[in-house]
Amino acid sequence: MISIVLVDDHFLVRDGIRSLLEDEEQYKVIGEASDGKEAIKVIESLQPDIIICDIRMPEMSGIETVQKLTALSVSSKKIMLSMHDSDEYILQSINAGADGYLLKDAGKEEFLKALATVSKGGKYFSGDVSSILVKKLLKEGGSSIVQDEVVKAKSNGITPKSNPFDLTKREIQILKLAVSGMTNKDIATELDISKRTTEVHRFNLMKKMKVKNVLELSNKARESGLIP
User: Fold this and answer.
1) Which of 101, 164, 181, 227 is the most buried (most CB within 10 A)?
2) 169-223 CATH
């Protein structure tokens, strides 16, 4: 049994994660905290295997919390949970000692994959985050953790050469489904994300590629080698 402590200032987020894990026998939520200061007390007391920590909280941010826990030599694996995929947050989390970084629009399958990877001693960063790490490393160089994630991202086909518009992994997924004729609702169901999230990603990828409709999107994607 892998024990987990949830750290998020929103009760609904904690409740949602707890509900998601109820049917997963290998995981058990043993504690919760609504801010960083409370989290440190709870985690030191319960010593969970994994901590899932929101990045933005009152009193003490998620990054500060993870940094403090790392300094205290807490052995728990640490996964950051965030709405933000900015390189600043991602790299600060890695430097603080995070073992993973997961976006809040991740589906159940990816969420469980992250838990499984981190529980076995690996590092997990969602596809969109891996793409950002690739670009950051190419511009400035990076740590060994970042380099590991570059390999993972490249294995998913996300490289500067094959991705001239700097699309994230999620945007590429949505592009392929959109040009196949699927609606936003269908895509949301297929990827296990909300329709609103699908619409935002679709808007962003069309803006990056400077196209106005699916036909233009399809033609430009083929010309650039994003789809066969």
Assistant:
1) 101
2) 1.10.10.10
User: Whole-prediction pTM value?
Assistant: 0.62
- Cα separation, 218 vs 95, in Å, equals 39
Neighbours of 157 (CB within 10 A): 11
End-to-end Cα distance, the chain: 44
CATH superfamily membership of 2-145: Response regulator (3.40.50.2300)
pLDDT in tens, 81-134: 988 777 778 888 888 999 999 888 778 888 999 999 999 998 888 766 665 665
Closest CA to 20 of 48, 47, 52: 52
226: CB partners within 8 A, 6+ apart: 162, 163, 165, 167, 172, 175, 176
